[in-house]
Amino acid sequence: MKEDKVKLISAEGFEFVIDKKAAMVSQTIRNMLTSPGSFAETEHGEVTFPEISTTILEKICQYFYWSLQYASGKETEFHIEPELTLELMMAANYLHT
């Protein structure tokens, strides 16, 4: 895996390869990837989320990229489907995003 990319793996095993800068939007992922010691996450740039479904992890990845754009001054709305709200809020809380 290239050093500027990370792989996020959902409960179902679906893999999302995203820019490390985008993943760092999450304090939890940042901690996992920068912890001292030889953790699998740090060495391989992979983080598995056994509690987060593919649908929710995909939305979270979209949010990371949206957040980077918003931080650079582009104001756009981030749409969340009502049926995903609760599960997405729980995942976002866990990820500190």
From TrEMBL:
Alphabetic keyword roster: Elongation factor, Nucleus, Protein biosynthesis
CDD domains (alphabetical): BTB_POZ_EloC (cd18321)
Compartment annotation: Nucleus
Residues annotated as domain SKP1 component POZ: 5-65
Lineage: superkingdom: Eukaryota
GO molecular function term, any single one: translation elongation factor activity
Family (UniProt): Belongs to the SKP1 family.
Name of the molecule in the record: Elongin-C
